[in-house]
Structure formats: C-alpha cells, structure tokens
Amino acid sequence: MNIVLFGDSHLGRFGKRFIDQLEGLIDNSIVYNCAAGGFTSNDGVRRVDYIARLKPDVVIFSFGGNDVSPWKEVVAESVFLSNMRRIFEAFPDSSKLLFTSPDVAVANQDQANIYNNSIHTYREALEPICEELGVLIVDGNDTVRDLQGDYHEDDGVHMNKNAYRNLVNQLAKTITLF
Predict the structure, then answer these.
(1) What Cα–Cα distance (Å) separates residue 30 from each residue in 39, 79, 96, 106?
(2) Which candidate, 84, 76, 62, 151, places its Cα nearest to that of 118?
(3) Cα–Cα distance, 23 to 27 (Å, whole number)
(4) pTM for this one?
C-alpha cells in the first residue's frame, strides 16, 4: 500500500521515526512524505497535479493551519474550500484522510483565539465536502486529547513526539477502515 502525506508542517515534520512506525502498523506499506512546513491550500493546489500522478492508495492531507494563521496572510474561507475540493478531487481512486490541526497555545492569547476559532470554523465548513467526496477526518484535538494539553513543541503550534505517537496510531486505525 502506497501512502502519501500531503500538506503542511503537521505532516512535514512527520520524520523517519514516525514513517517507520506507521509502515510497521500497516502491512506492506510505504509512506512518501510530500508535505512541507508553511504550506497553505494555495500551495497544495499548485502541486496537486504532480503529486496525484503518484496514484497512491491512501493520501493523508493536512491543510488549514497556515490558511487561518493570524501571523501569516490568511486564505479566505471560500478560497480554502475551493482549494480543498480541487485537491481532494485530484485523487479519485485513492482513499483520503484529512488530519486537522489541533488547537494552538501560542504566547499571544489573541492570536491563539483567532487561530483556534478560525480552524474550527474552516473545518466545519469543510465537513460537507469531505462527506461528499468520501474523505475521512482525523480531528487533531481528538488525537491529542489524552495528552491533557501537553502536546506542543515550545512554539505552541507544532506537535511534540507524544502527539506524533498518538497521531501515527490514529492514522493506522483509520486507514484500516478503508
């Protein structure tokens, strides 16, 4: 089974240790990481045709966090939704998973509130598209819930190794649903 990771830093930071762990949980799988820190859905749309040529069995997406980030240029919700539809539709024969960003805990509480509220709003708006196109959602907050708030690197945005361990296990469980 060929699995492609495509999205932002939540998957871009998915290094060899976690790739090996995921491959170990899913028989006969190879994981290819095509994600990069800072990617927005605009970046995804620019790259999707090339990545789709890989014809993976499973694609795991992670877009949205940089789209709503108040410390970057925000991608309008309507553009985000259009981009995500285009990205999902580029993989008609692949099983699709969307990993959504867990809440952030940055030092600037106003920025944290804006980000967390916006990521929830974008996700809710994206749910009907996911349902229509058969994209399963792995909620980042559900993935880290048992870590009781201790799931960030020092920057308050990116996940730590404990969160990634949870993520790998959740992805493996979800992939077996296909």
Answers:
(1) 23, 32, 16, 34
(2) 76
(3) 7
(4) 0.96
Question: Are 151 and 163 within 8 A, CB to CB?
Answer: yes
Q: 2-175 — its CATH code?
A: 3.40.50.1110
32: three-class secondary structure by DSSP: strand
The amino acid that residue 106 corresponds to is V
pLDDT values of the chain reduced to their tens digit, one per residue, 178 residues:
999 999 999 999 999 999 999 999 999 999 999 999 999 999 999 999 999 999 999 999 999 999 999 989 999 999 999 999 999 999 999 999 999 999 999 999 999 999 999 999 999 999 999 999 999 999 999 999 999 878 999 999 999 999 999 999 999 999 998 8
**Does residue 70 sit in helix, strand or coil?**
coil
Domain range list for the chain? 2-175
Collapsed DSSP state (helix, strand, coil) of residue 104: coil
136 SS3 class: strand
